[in-house]
Amino acid sequence: MASVWVLTHDPYGYSVCRVSSRLNPYPDWILARRLQLAHRIAALRIQAGLSQDQLAVRMGVGRSTVQRYEAALRDPRYPDLLLLAYALDVPLAELTR
């Protein structure tokens, strides 16, 4: 698989280089589901009465990780989905529905 270097900007305006190992970009429906998951994480966190800091502590990650999940800038991996569901006290299926 070929690597592609992409020059982009982070949310704070800094230039960053990212390496993409995908040959093709994700289809639109994947991006839409990513956004749905981000909104679902934020809604469940708020419903649980937790701040991003509190959720991050429960998960054992940094607050910036939770911020990236909720902004759809990063996809949680399966172990992080399990930690999210546990920290929010919801079944994994409810988190990803």
What does this structure look like?
The chain is α+β, with helices and mostly antiparallel strands. The protein is built from 5 helices and 2 strands, in the order ββααααα. The termini are far apart. The mean pLDDT is about 85.
Question: What topology emerges from the helices and strands here?
Answer:
Elements: E1 4-9, E2 15-20, H1 28-47, H2 52-59, H3 63-70, H4 78-88, H5 92-96
Antiparallel strand pairs: 1-2
Which features characterize this protein?
two-stranded antiparallel ribbon; 5 helices; globular; 97 residues; alpha+beta; 54% helix
Proportion of strand residues: 5-15%
- End-to-end CA span: 31 Å
Structural class: alpha+beta
Alpha carbon gyration radius: 15 Å
Q: What sort of overall outline do the alpha carbons produce when their principal axes are compared? A: globular
Largest sheet: 2 strands, antiparallel
Strands, total number: 2
**Biggest β-sheet: strands ordered side by side in the sheet:** 1-2
Low-confidence segments, given as residue ranges, are: none
The helix fraction, in percent, is: 40-55%
How many alpha or pi helices? 5
Which series of helices and strands comes N to C? EEHHHHH
**Average residue pLDDT:** 86
In short:
With 97 residues, this protein is an alpha+beta fold. The protein is built from five helices and two strands.
